[in-house]
Specification:
This protein is α/β, with parallel strands linked by helices. The chain contains 9 helices and 10 strands.
Length: about 280
């Protein structure tokens, strides 16, 4: 509900207006607090409207994102870009991913933040892109992914697609293909990463088996996930592969194969200056 704020109530208090969410922090149901404490009045009203229609059959795009903190973000690119340059690139890739998702009509965007939602970029993303901010929870990447997907599928009963921010060549067409697959007769859809992982996974039903005891970050992630999908009896489809931009050679590959995209990211973050300064 929305009302005049007399005291701090519920999960969200902002500018004299509050929004309450009685489902927040119900850990046994896998429901995490999706809201921040620094949103505009207009955004609170939008959140309230979306909460009231939360059970409608509307697909969800979920983005896992790490706060762009220098020294902690894109660490494998620090030798090439420096700590500040790598963090700025992380900021640009988050914004680029949100912009791509925003081109999909009638889709709810959830930005799953780590370590929390307090970073100014996350706050700006909620306002600029209409993204709902949610906190990643779990002991490893697999658990965080499962909790996010289960959260959406449990609350909304519609298709959910989860992506990261490391594959800037992932395009609107890929997202549309994923939802088209899930709206057909498939249980799952996956887009491989060229390093042996994947850059997108979409589900109509979630099982922790897909994500448990996976060697995340290794070249076996995709192969192991294919085996799990088959073990579960899921009907699934594989989309076009993309390359994660994690290492210096990945960034150099992007500058050669997608120069306009690399230039846009570099311009947005002053990565060019970071490279030249080193």
């Amino acid at each position: 509900m929305i009302g005049i704020l007399i005291q701090r109530v519920g999960t969200l208090a902002v500018f004299g207006v509050y929004y309450t969410d009685r489902d927040a922090h119900v850990e046994s149901r896998g429901v995490d607090v999706p809201f921040t404490n620094q949103l505009s009045l207009g955004n609170v009203r939008r959140l309230a409207f979306q909460r009231n229609t939360d059970m409608c059959d509307s697909p969800v795009i979920q983005i896992l994102a790490k706060a762009p903190v220098a020294g902690l973000a894109k660490t494998r690119l620090i030798p090439l870009l420096g700590a500040e340059g790598a963090a700025r690139l992380q900021s640009a890739m988050i914004a680029h991913t949100l912009g791509t998702c925003q081109e999909i009509p009638s889709v709810r965007i959830e930005l799953w933040c780590s370590p929390d939602t307090s970073h100014p970029l996350f706050q700006e993303s909620a306002e600029r892109y209409g993204a709902l901010l949610m906190v990643q929870r779990g002991d490893d990447l697999g658990e965080r992914m499962h909790r996010a997907l289960a959260n959406a599928l449990q609350r909304r009963g519609a298709a959910a697609v989860l992506i990261g921010t490391d594959a800037p060549t992932l395009a609107t067409a890929d997202l549309k293909a994923a939802f088209s697959t899930l709206h057909g007769d498939h249980d799952a859809v996956i887009a491989p990463a060229l390093d042996g992982g994947y850059v997108l996974i979409g589900l109509n039903r979630a099982s922790p088996t897909l994500f448990r005891s996976i060697a995340w970050g290794s070249s076996k992630v995709l192969a192991d996930t294919r085996q799990r999908l088959n073990l579960l009896g899921y009907r699934w489809r594989e989309l076009t592969a993309h390359r994660d931009i994690d290492r210096p050679e990945d960034w150099l590959w992007l500058t050669r194969t997608c120069p306009s995209l690399a230039q846009k990211l570099a311009t947005d973050t002053m990565v060019v200056e970071s490279v030249r300064a080193r």
